[in-house]
Write a structure and sequence with these properties.
The chain is α/β, with parallel strands linked by helices. It is built from 9 helices and 7 strands; from the N terminus they run H-E-H-E-H-E-H-E-H-E-H-E-H-H-H-E. The radius of gyration is 19 Å and the shape is globular. The termini are far apart. Bound molecules: nicotinamide-adenine-dinucleotide. Belongs to the short-chain dehydrogenases/reductases (SDR) family.
Length: about 290
């Protein structure tokens, strides 16, 4: 297999001759630009996913939010539409269950065809859809365990699979970011979430396997592993136990839990050409939790 060519759609600092440009020495803005690119975000109907959609727009990319919710969160999606309009960019929403392979493949093919027709080809995905559940391991019903794995592992697998297929077929050297969690590396104090933790460790290993297989096409695959983020998912956990907040804060080196905005720059970094030598890696962004004993 021939080695992948250097990504070419980047602008140059004036001092560098065009023949010598690489993603690594492109202008600062180009390193973090998603201009002329379309990114799909699963779980893009609310929470972290819809916030990352705004990050893609801010980096100059078009974005497609995909979620099992019939409609995205009204307020956040209206803000996305306003940003897109003001910037001459595109945002759209697709209702789709990522575990329904037949429907998901069809939706991804449509998205790629539409993206190609707008001059901003499909360039990458953020696999952000996920579910959580807190049950002691000795009581965990197998059906619930399997349901968590189906969405978090199989759904992430399908997202990456169809994103890579489109890129391979169209010759695009893009980037796939899979949202894992610090829970893929540690067992959280106060949480009995064995299925979720298992699923996130699986996502981190899946990343290395995909990176190994798709590096030959110039496709990069990395995981972004957040610590605690104040979203509906975390609020649901906090509501189950009044002691959890103090337990979480005990490991918060920066004296706060994360906000969805904290993950915008890390996600854009992993998608954009500036991280062109990074694949098969995990970027942990956890406010110091995993460094705290
Ligand atoms: N909130 C946290 O503290 C935290 C920490 C680490 C990692 N994460 C991860 O971040 C990601 C986003 O979580 P969040 O906190 O925004 O939670 P959230 O519940 O607000 O958002 C998750 C989204 O995924 C969607 N989804 C669920 N199943 C789906 C399916 N089968 N098909 C399509 N969409 C589906 C949901 O409808 C929802 O919109 C998840 O992967 C989660 O595991 C969250």
């Amino acid at each position: 297999m021939a080695p992948a060519a250097i990504v070419s759609d980047i602008s140059l600092p004036a001092s560098i001759p065009e023949s010598k440009v690489t993603p690594a020495n492109a202008s600062h803005a180009a390193k973090f630009s998603l201009s002329n690119k379309t990114i799909v975000i699963t779980g893009g109907g609310r929470g972290l996913g819809i916030t990352l959609a705004s990050a893609v727009l801010e980096a100059g990319g078009n974005v497609v939010c995909l979620d099992v919710l019939p409609e995205p969160s009204k307020k956040e999606y209206a803000a996305l539409q306003q940003t897109a309009t003001e910037s001459g960019l595109l945002v759209s929403y697709r209702n789709c269950d990522i575990t329904d392979e037949i429907r998901f493949e069809e939706v991804m093919k449509n998205i790629a065809a539409e993206a190609a027709s707008t001059g901003a080809p499909f360039y990458g995905a953020i696999a952000c859809a996920g579910i959580q559940q807190k049950i002691p391991a000795v009581d965990y019903p197998a059906a619930d365990f399997e349901r968590i794995l189906k969405v978090n592992v199989t759904g992430t697998f399908l997202t990456a699979k169809y994103a890579a297929k489109i890129m391979i077929e169209s010759g695009v050297q893009g980037s796939i970011v899979m949202i894992a969690s610090m829970s893929g590396q540690i067992a959280n104090r106060g949480l009995t979430c064995s299925a979720y933790n298992t699923s996130k460790a699986a996502v981190q290993q899946m990343c290395r396997s995909f990176a190994q297989e798709w590096g030959q096409y110039g496709i990069r695959v990395n995981t972004l592993s957040p610590g605690y983020i104040r979203t509906a998912m975390l609020d649901g956990l906090l509501a189950t136990d009044s002691t959890l907040s103090d337990i979480f804060m005990a490991g918060a080196m920066l004296n706060r839990l994360g906000a969805p905005d904290d993950f915008k720059a890390p996600a854009v970094f992993l998608l954009a050409p500036g991280s062109s030598f990074m694949t098969g890696a995990d970027l942990r962004v956890d406010g110091g939790h995993c460094a705290s004993a």
